[in-house]
Amino acid sequence: MAEDVPQNPTTSPASDSDSDNEAQQKAELQTLETKLSSNPSNYDAHVQYIKLLRKMGELEKLRQAKEAMSELFLLAPYMWQEWAKDEASLTTR
After folding, report:
1. How far apart are alpha carbons 54 and 1 in whole angstroms?
2. What's the whole-model pTM score?
3. What is the largest CA-CA distance in the chain?
């Protein structure tokens, strides 16, 4: 016996998972922002925050996050390389 499940023709399963993923990323972003505001010297939270901002394409926030981290910590060479790539992508926009 088939259940009557209303179908939304404008929403595909792929877009549902995209919006779920976006909501999950925003929640994770909020969690990391809270962690960093309560403990700015949390190195791992800075790294996770930067990775998530890059993944989300939040380039202006990414720049601010890197500047904040670089004021507290020495950045590894790969971080400087990533920063240069991110800045290059900002200038091509």
Report:
1. 47
2. 0.76
3. 63
- The string of pLDDT tens digits covering residues 41-50 is 999 999 999 9
Neighbours of 92 (CB within 10 A): 6
List, in order, residues 6 or more apart from 28 with CB less than 8 Å away.
52
Q: If you ran DSSP here, which 8-state letter would residue 12 be given?
A: -
Residues 69 and 51: their CA atoms lie apart, in Å, by 13
Q: Helical H runs in 9-76?
A: 13-38, 43-56, 59-72
Q: How many CB atoms lie within 10 A of CB 15?
A: 11
- Segment 27-51 mean pLDDT: 97
CB crowding 28-58: b at 16 or more within 10 Å, else e: ebeebeebbeeeeeeeebbbbbbebbbeeee
